[in-house]
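Why run this: before we spend reagent on co-expression, it is cheaper to look at a predicted model of the complex and decide which construct boundaries make sense. The entries below are exactly what would go into the expression plan.
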Amino acid sequence: MSKRRIFKYSTLALILIWGFFKLLPEREEAAVNSDQEAPSPAKRDVKHVIKFAPGNQYTPGVSLFGMSEPLEGLTKVIRKYEERHPDTRIEVFNVPTVQREYLVTQLSSGAAPDIVKVNVEDVWVDVHKNWYVPLDTFLEQPNPYVVEKGDPDLPGARQWWDMFRYQALTRGKAGPDGKYYCYTLDAVETGIFYNKTLFGQLGLEVPQTMTEFFYVAETIKKNGYIPLIAVLQSYADWGVDLIFDQLYYELLPGIDLVKDPTREAYLQGYLDSEEIAFLHSKGFFTKEDPRFLEKWRLLKQLRQYLAQEMNVRSGQERQFINQQAAMVWLPSTLTYRLVADKNLGFEWGVFYFPMVDEAVSEMASNTPACVIGGAATQFEVTNSAVSDTDPHLPFEERMEQSERLKRVIGFLQFLSLPENAELVTNENPRFIPNIVGVEPLPELEPFEKILERRYTTTKWLNTFDLRFFDVLQRMFALYLEDGATLEELVSWMDDNISASSELFENRKGIDWESLEKRWQELAPAREGMTFLPKPLQENPAL
Amino acid sequence: MRRPRYQNVLLHAILIVLASLTLTPFLFTANNIFRTKKEFDQSFFSFPDAFEGLIKVSALYLTGNDDQVEVVDGFGAKEIVSRDEAFGLYIDYAQQGPSKAWSVLRPFMQNSFLVSICTAIGVCLVGSSTAYILSRYRFIGREMVFLSILSTMMFPAVLTLVPSFLLVKELGLLNSYWAMILPYIASGQVIAIFVFRSFFAGLPEELFESARIDGAGHLGIYLNIILPLSKPVFSVVIIMNVLYTWNQFLWPFIVNTDGSKHVIASGLFIMARSQEAQDFGLMFAAYSISSIPLLVLFIYATRPFMRGITSGALKA
Amino acid sequence: MKQEKFSFTFTCYAIILPTLALLFTFIYLPVGWAFSRSLYDFEIGSESRFVGLGNFREYLFSDPTFWPSMLHMGALTFFLVCVRLTIPLVVAKLIHSLSTEKSRYVYRTIFLAPIVVPGVALQLIWMNLVYSDAGLLNETLRMIGLADFTQGWLTNPDTALLAIMVIGFPFVSGIDVLIYYAGLSSIPEDVNESCALEGCVGIRKFFRIDVPLVLSQLKLILILTIINGLQAFENVYILTEGGPGYETTVPGLWMYYNAFKFQRMGYACAIGVVLFLMILTLTIINIKYFRSAEEVKEGA
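The model came back. Tokens follow.
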């Protein structure tokens, strides 16, 4: 008995000691750090510790698709920057910035990383709270790291702005208040990846129109494959916008009320929140609006060709890789997965969302599908960057005084140098660089082509607040899964737009009068337009 | 009471079926630890390729065959190597998931340990001393105090979730261990006080009397009488508390706004919502690793825990 | 004498001071805040606005998720109550009926073992391993030729709620079995013997002797299950986020979303208060209703 006890407790002691040593920080890490030429952080006289959350796609050490070597591009740039500025250290955090609640708690506590990666549309809701630093003043100034190279003709020597390759796309990310809150490092576009080998076996061509697409999908389905994999969240985002654009594009001359000169270059005819709210009051986007009903109907029609399980949070491409599915609708990031796989076993290609033609819907605008991607990695500078100043001062003054902010902006400027941006974006083929002088990797060529198309007419999910987003995404999902009828969905959407418009009006105000004036001016343009909401159909000037 | 043999067999059969149903998901989890993302893309359920490879190579060793072996790596590239190298490669593949998972989980694990241990110690100290006073002494306002502790049982966690966050934010405790430890002690002590109180109340008064006559103070009584006699109760309280703390994920998820102090549970949740979730092998390894500390606790503490519960520590 | 009494009381309070301080800071203060803030419309970072009972009115009368979420919460809780009051008790009885102490110990250990898996991990394991499109459930169906029945268990509105309930099947792991077992073990041996003599065995004995004697354990688990069931939302949050649509949303989750996603802290507090009142009512009913059972136990 006592022998057993001795055994029992000595094993426990061993486990505890082993666990204790396992838990201690690994030695190797320290070794790697001291390997570098830069003096180790401890030895340097560090004044500013900048926290940086670059998002999943670029966090050093992350292994993409579970197959790549750990990412290190960003680490290299950070090392170079720290070498230049020994008083600054940049710590990288991997926080799930896609989680909205995460962002809210971070920012409200003032403990957010100085630089976060968020889609800028998520930021707009909170800009009036001074949670984010507007970058306009910096973007209009020269980039000091370009200036010191001495060549005044280099992009960035006059304005930091000039360094961005996709000007319209980048400038289009201005907030509703006209300010720029994001730094756009690269661009992304969605595409439908298809199994070329399988298409060949089944004698299928790449579809250009929706009719052709339905034929292709039907053939694939009959042969026992899943035609298309689309993730629910993306389908509610891209799908809804694309079909909306396909149906409403021909109406734009009659319904695009507000022209915004700063964003017009990229967002021609973009319908903003107040326009949506106003059009809604005129009967658009209600059960009276035939195009609105048609939009949901088409999306549901397409649903029958999608994989059964749409709410996949991980491994969406799995069935495409093992050849159970013939197509998958994903961003260009998947390219890397396909290129890296040495025994994929099939040829693949990329095409873009087909055009909705009149054979599929009589309300089709007959225009090629628009772009719905665009800016990919958007870095926002948060209020933590000015945390070294007196919080009672006005925000502008804090921005001027803050030393820390200079370092933070300086890092973004440093990252904009082509030789640095290249290390990050071109580490592998996923994103198209947005810096002049960095060429996209050859594998991404199809996506570069897609990006030349015109931009979408609106982004539904981001039109109003997050509650609007939530209701839209959820009820759409329910409708797709036969949990709600078309009438129920449209009635939810009707209430949703009403409630959100009201909140929007309370919070920011809507200039109904000038919208109404503009609406009357556009009445002639609406003459002869078909499939308008019922009351309008009878009297376009109403 | 003697039972017919067939009845016992039947009992065993039912229990074994139930046990295997309960354990099935965990067995699959254990199997999946050693599989790579690539293998999951090919098929969701199968024996780890690395193990198959290892068995193949071991067979070569056993038969004394020293042929070259073809090894397929994580990217699908094939290479021909000697059997020693193949053995090493397969070992590498098998431990890829666990070692990656560990590198992600290690800081979470440290935090979890720190928070759980501090909370358990705090709850035991605070809970047992309060229970000692409440159960052995009559003083002015005792009923009031007891009632104020009792009534906190009525406040559900959902009621206080939002204001607690605001409070912790006001106190400037966000992103610190205190943001977790203090509220855990505050809520964990309530049940502890109940369990301790009912146990202490059952101890014979003569013990305390004689100790007091010997001139022992509160501390002396606590150390010499309470502690030695209440080991099973302490173990129940500690284990229940560690279980509770270890499983909390929402609160750490909310109060660790910069992500530096995540514990195992919130860390797992974050992993499940990030890029890493695409690597199933990694995720399954993470689930398994997160269970190991409690498994060790379980192996060494089941007996006292069961004894504690069987002695009736938990009753309404 | 008076001074002695004073110092005695003082010492007592000094010892329980940490308890009281923690209680007031981390429980009573937030509770007070919850009540007062529920009357305001505020988001962190902006001015708050007094709205009186507006939040309550909106939640109770015009929030579209109110009735569905209450229904889901009720269904989940009811299911949990039914399951936790029966299956672990039967299993405890089965184990208790085994002939050797060793085998009893082994089974108790086996059924207790799954508690080492953190709750989050358990949910994620079920989500990824059992319910995913290529998961255990669907693959099994395909294997036995019922491919038509495969579905996205957590995304299909008809099955999502059920799928959430069924997690943990067959519901025998955890402490419940142990608690019931403890109750069964405390039944005096002479009661068992006199039963046997009267020919009261098997199922009849189970209902007439065992169940009444574990009533106090049943009551404990009933109260705990109801309180937990009404406020639990973490599992729903991990598994479905309340979707598809609002088909699995529960009030707690809606509160969480309002607070941390939509930034309507006041509204969230109001939902918390409503939940609190419900739990309070149910607990009071519970205590009153089970008074007699309590007396039975004390008599025994």
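Chain A has two domains: 42-188+375-447, 190-370+464-538. Residues 42-188+375-447 of chain A form a domain with the D-Maltodextrin-Binding Protein; domain 2 fold (CATH 3.40.190.10). Bring this page to Monday's planning discussion.
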